User: Fold Transporter from Pseudoalteromonas rubra.
Amino acid sequence: MIRPAFSSRIGFIFAAAGSAVGLGNIWKFPFETGANGGAVFVLIYLGFCFLLCYPVMVAEIAIGRHTRRNAVGAFSVLGFPRWKLVGLLGVLCAVLILSFYNVIAAWVIGYLFEMLRGNFAIGDNFSNFTSDAIKITLYAGIFMALTTYVVSKGVSAGIESAAKFLMPALVVVMIGMSLYGLSLPGASNGVVFYLMPDFSAVNLSVVYAALGQAFFSLSLGMGTLMTLGSYLPRQANIVSSSAMVTLADVGIALMAGLLIFPLVFSQGLSPTGGEALIFEALPRAFESFGPVTGSVLGSGFFLLLAFAALTSTVSMLEVPTSYLVDEFSLSRKTGAVIAATLIFIISIPSLLSAGAVEELTHFVELGASQQSASFMRAAGMLASDTLLPVGGFCIAVFSAYVWCRQNLKEELTAANVEVSPLLLSYLNVSLRYVCPLLLAIVVVVTVAEGFF
Ligand code: PHE
Assistant:
């Protein structure tokens, strides 16, 4: 089968960065930082991104490009059919993550409409907004349909074009809003919380959340980048492309923190507001520009955020779709529609778990903190904080010990691509020793501690 390819390396970088940059950076990163002690969480997260995630990203993309297959088929093509389980875990993760991610995307669409109407009070009534099951289901349906449409059109036509000009636009709006936020009274307390580490706040649950955030935000550990890598031409430099994707993703997350925390502190909100944080802090900030400008800015912001989320949901739906297309010979359109329908059905409990149904809203007691978590939060913790690092662990072990260092090196330097020997040694040491050891420790300890 001839696989469509990205038309250029830059097309791949935008698609991979488009996958990485999304609600994980702008919605999840600020609330996880707020709930986990501020600057110290940011430091641990940065350490994980560069020490663990960057090498795993290189390995994932290399496996995808070498095999030109989906996350499950890739392992069989390499001759290790038992490792298919890692790919299946990835498909499962993609289904689970998309099922709740789509709900947050639905909130974003809802906010887009509210900002268009100039309803800036929405942030004060956030729980009423999220518990309106019919409205949120409608928005979620719209978002899933959009994602399915883009995926069914094929990878290069769909993902590349959107990411190229919308991501820079989002960055420009974020910089403008941050500068405004920093000028507000009380903003400096937000900057201190965000940038001055308080090491006494470190505990296991902070480390666990930072690891999950790093994997989630970089779209790692579930075969997304393996799948995207399978469309990458041989001449592209995987090592430098991955570095650019990591830097872009981390940069945008850091910027989101600088946008949100000054607003949170200047409005006297609590940084520990959880999933509601950006949805509560942003509307009043837009309002202060006056009704017309505020409405234009607010709707523009949520429109761009919806696009950023779309480039991520597209890459998530691509994982089960390309599995169905490659392994069951379905057409791309049929594969995408089947996967999306299934995911939409699975997303219903998440949809109802933000106020609509009490049992789902207070779904489990978290072992360590004795707080309750909603169904959606529990699904998020299971998928992003536990399963993604487990997937990353398997990919590191597979690439370093099973597929072997020599093959990885050959793939990274295929078509005479130059990679500095120092960087290759760094990747090798990280994948062989640092990733397996650190990931195993964190996953085992946190599971044993009852986080999950
Ligand atoms: N990285 C995406 C974000 O930050 C979410 C995602 C996770 C996408 C896993 C694909 C795979 O929004």
About this structure: The chain has one domain: 9-448. The longest strand covers residues 364-365.
